[in-house]
């Protein structure tokens, strides 16, 4: 794909995400109701945005876990490709992918540390829920 096609695709995806987020904020704050004449003040909209940011942090956390695992598997595949044909696949590619995987898997701990730094001990981070241990 050419460069301008990639830019148009990413611009379209970003626009769709922003529109969906805006519709979520206004629907939750009461601005948009089924035929009603509701008017929300800026405080209500700001409170809704603040509450939605926790969901965005959970989405980023989950995406980081999935992308980190993907990069880890990709690094293993690239290591195998390098072993099979070292002249075609440089060793720097799987090593870089491995470092990216490690960085993405540590994003939740960075969120927790940053939250504790900015908001004190009351900062919380999104985690994995619904998982039971085998103890």
Set out the fold topology.
Layout: H1 3-29, H2 42-84, H3 92-105, H4 107-119
Helix pairs in contact: 1-2, 2-3
Please characterize this protein's 3D structure.
Helix 1 runs antiparallel to helix 2 (42-84) and helix 2 (42-84) packs antiparallel against helix 3. The radius of gyration is 21 Å and the shape is flat. The protein folds into 2 domains: 1-40, no CATH class; 56-128. 7% of the residues are buried. With 135 residues, the protein is mainly α. The chain has 4 helices and no strands. It has helices at 3-29, 42-84, 92-105, 107-119.
List its traits.
135 residues; mainly alpha; 2 domains; 4 helices; 72% helix
Summarize the structure.
With 135 residues, the chain is an all-alpha fold.
